[in-house]
Amino acid sequence: MKVLFAAAAAAGLLVASPTFAQGFGQETYLNVGYTSFALDQVRGQDVSDADFNLGAVTGRFGSKLNTNFGLEAELGVGVQDQEATLRTTTVTSKLNYEAAAFAVGYLPVTTSTELFARVGVGRIEIESEVTPPTGAASGGGAQTIFGLGVGVQHFFDGVNGIRGDYTRYTGEERGAEADALGISYVRRF
Q: What is the CATH number of the domain that holds 140?
């Protein structure tokens, strides 16, 4: 159901984006894709050895203010939960949402390909349940995250393209750290 809702919202944004795009910066864009979050820590517990991955359908709306600088907003809705066992402890986690705003720097490589770096801040909500042999404990909630990332995007015909990116997220509290890899379709307006 989450995937259907996210896809419907993305389709609605694609249809409405040309109207919203007028009046922003030099170029506006919308992208929709999939992001995999590889967790290093959940509630302060190291889970990096367990290949702990959560997935999200992610959408971004951005505006390039000039050739080399822009801003983008990002929203991800969780679609893949994960359960992992570390020694005698089972950790089950679920990504509810991730929302962030980024400042983005661009470096054009060719007329159709550009590299970018981004830095931003946002919120993430992950629910987790830790089940040690003596009983279960659950928790979660939203927390502030800081992101630093890099990526590349290539446009096939000037307006339609593909984007790949990596972002390192660090939580402000409760020991949350994750690496995010994403791939998405990009549409420029």
A: 2.40.160.20
